[in-house]
Q: What sequence folds into this?
């Protein structure tokens, strides 16, 4: 600005509102002392007596024989991979859910989904930094996996139906027969294989449910049901999960899929029968069923 | 002859000094005489003279007792040393200050929501009734943000403060008036707002979504990017003649709360925060006034004249003395403290 031939209010700081404003601080240094720890939070609220990372913490250097100041005990130089693992609360062994090679800082930002955990169950998940196959500390969190729907999952798709609109009945199948012998009052059981698996039948309304409005979405319903029938008949193995915690690795029985009108034309029931084809808790079975990318070096025996 | 007029006297607490204002249309005032009479018994309970030009009279604390009706009358002696005639009577009531305060707020309370229902407690030993009240909210710099309408429901002394922002601090206050005009004010309460987060802090967030468990990492990698090597003295990193700095992985947009514990500090620069242009520097200075003592000095260098604050002075008797230094910055107001632990 020019006034009376004099330039004023022209520099960057001329009308700075307050002489104490320093924003977007992204550098801190500490010198000339012996330091136990340094903690920084992004608000001015009183700090807890026992300092720990929380949602307001931006930096916490504990100087515990190291200089790291983040919430992880590894850096890009000290890990080659990050594993996400899980186990049922009470189990000992962890199963690997997800792996990622770390080549850049941004690789630490990981998000993913795990369709293969049964409902009605407390699960522990953990992050593990790995360097050349050697695992570091586990950063663990827990969740109670729950749902009010039956879910059918394969590699590419997930469909659910509200539990109150569906049913699933099962039969335990096996091999063998009874042999009546001349000298015994009772028959002898003869088992000809190790087969021991469930079969079942399932049916449900399979209608899109808008949880926000608690209403069924009826538009495009026929197309949606067609997708489900195609999904059930795509020959891929699937995982069937029930809200009560039961879960199976299944194949849909050929020719068993029906789509039947129940009362109203939009009220149609899809049903099918299925056969258990593997152990849904087995990393190996899930891998060969095409439902998991976790390769053999991570399988839990 | 002219007489003064006593302005309306609201009900007041006689245990406190009460200023009584006069109106006078005459020569310059030399002295004022105030006579207070119990209006029930017509017994004079106070009669005093105060000199001065101001048209006000300070009725001393405990000059009268509470829970009684009174009237006051005044005389004024002008610059000619002539006393005026007596004023008309100004009736008033004296009552002990009732309890009037927030019942559900503690100092520095942390509010976990954007709304807060503040409750007031009111009680009067004299049976003085509350007539009206309202609520005030100030920001951390004591700038009034909002005051409620006057409320009259004395059976429901509550008010919902809304629009409280996350990670801000506020001051709350209530004011009221009794039926006899006694003005009340609650204590000023400092609160902090910190919304409840969807889950407790973790490095791995988990969520049930559409039949699956969604996982999301919350890893913050902050490392020293320099070339110095450090040695450790137990739990302490030795920064004697060295600096450790962090320049990636964090950002402080505005406010700041910082705490660090150190020992064996040297005079000179201790801590620096900057944004690439401006900086905040904390240094240790030695002062001598017969005894050697230290102060921590915070200097804000943002292109204008340096803003500076000092900690309280502290002494360091040996290298093993351990100090906790706290620095907060809220709305560009700073607070600095150094304590020995």
A:
């Amino acid at each position: 600005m020019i006034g009376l031939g004099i330039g004023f209010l022209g520099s960057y700081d001329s009308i700075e509102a307050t002489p104490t404003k320093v924003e977007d601080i992204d550098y801190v240094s500490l010198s000339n002392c012996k330091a136990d720890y340094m903690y920084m939070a992004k608000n001015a609220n009183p700090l807890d007596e026992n300092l720990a990372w929380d949602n307001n913490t931006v930096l916490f250097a504990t100087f515990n024989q190291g200089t790291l100041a983040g919430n992880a005990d590894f850096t890009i130089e000290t890990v080659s991979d990050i594993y996400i693992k899980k186990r049922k609360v009470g189990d000992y062994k962890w199963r690997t859910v997800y792996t990622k090679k770390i080549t850049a800082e941004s690789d630490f930002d990981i998000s993913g989904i795990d369709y293969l955990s049964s409902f009605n169950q407390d699960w522990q998940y953990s992050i593990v930094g790995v360097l050349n196959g050697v695992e570091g500390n586990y950063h663990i969190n827990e969740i109670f996996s729950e749902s009010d729907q039956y879910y059918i999952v394969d590699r590419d798709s997930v469909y659910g139906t509200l539990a109150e609109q569906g049913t699933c009945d099962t039969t335990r199948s096996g091999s063998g027969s009874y042999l009546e012998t001349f000298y015994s009052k009772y028959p002898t059981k003869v088992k000809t294989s190790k087969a021991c698996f469930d079969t079942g039948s399932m049916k449900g309304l399979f209608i899109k449910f808008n949880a926000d409005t608690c209403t069924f979405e009826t538009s495009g319903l026929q197309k949606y049901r067609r997708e489900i029938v195609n999904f059930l008949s795509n020959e891929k193995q699937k995982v069937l999960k029930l809200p009560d915690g039961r879960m199976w690795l299944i194949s849909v029985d050929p020719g068993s899929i029906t789509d039947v009108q129940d009362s109203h034309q939009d009220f149609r029931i899809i049903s099918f029968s299925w056969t258990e084809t593997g152990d849904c808790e087995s990393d190996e079975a899930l891998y060969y069923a095409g439902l998991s990318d976790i390769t053999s070096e991570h399988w839990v025996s | 002859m002219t007489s003064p007029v006593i302005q309306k006297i609201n009900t007041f607490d006689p245990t406190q000094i009460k200023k009584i204002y006069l109106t006078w249309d005459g020569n310059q005032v030399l002295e004022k005489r105030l006579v207070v009479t119990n209006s029930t018994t017509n017994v004079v309970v106070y009669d005093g003279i105060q000199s001065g030009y101001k048209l006000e009279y300070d009725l001393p604390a405990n000059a009268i007792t509470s829970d009684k009706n009174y009237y006051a009358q005044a005389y004024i002696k002008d610059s000619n040393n002539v006393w005026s005639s007596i004023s008309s009577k100004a009736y008033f009531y004296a009552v002990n200050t009732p309890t009037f305060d927030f019942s559900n707020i503690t100092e520095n309370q942390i509010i976990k929501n954007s709304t807060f229902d503040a409750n007031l407690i009111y009680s009067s030993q004299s049976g003085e009734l509350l007539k009206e009240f309202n609520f005030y909210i100030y920001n951390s710099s004591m700038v009034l943000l909002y005051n409620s309408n006057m409320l009259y429901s004395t059976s429901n002394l509550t008010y919902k403060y809304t629009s409280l922002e996350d990670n801000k601090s506020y001051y709350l206050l209530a004011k009221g008036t009794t039926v006899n005009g006694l003005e009340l004010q609650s204590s000023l309460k400092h609160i902090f707002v910190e919304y409840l987060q969807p889950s407790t802090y973790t490095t791995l967030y988990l969520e049930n979504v559409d039949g699956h468990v969604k996982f999301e990492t919350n890893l913050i990698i902050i490392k020293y990017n320099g070339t110095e090597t450090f040695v450790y003295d137990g739990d302490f990193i030795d920064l004697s003649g060295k600096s450790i700095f962090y320049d990636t992985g964090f950002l402080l947009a505005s406010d700041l709360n910082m705490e660090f514990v150190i020992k064996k500090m040297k005079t000179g620069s201790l801590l620096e925060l900057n944004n690439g242009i401006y900086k905040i520097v904390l240094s240790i200075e030695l002062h001598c006034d017969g005894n050697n003592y230290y102060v921590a000095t915070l200097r804000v260098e943002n292109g204008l004249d340096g803003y500076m604050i000092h900690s309280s002075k502290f002494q360091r008797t040996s290298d093993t003395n351990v100090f906790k230094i706290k620095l907060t910055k809220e709305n560009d107001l700073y607070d600095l403290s150094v304590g020995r632990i």
The two ends of chain B are 73 Å apart (CA to CA). The mean pLDDT of chain B is 89. Chain B touches chain A through 95 residues (CB under 8 Å). DSSP finds no helices and 28 strands in chain B.
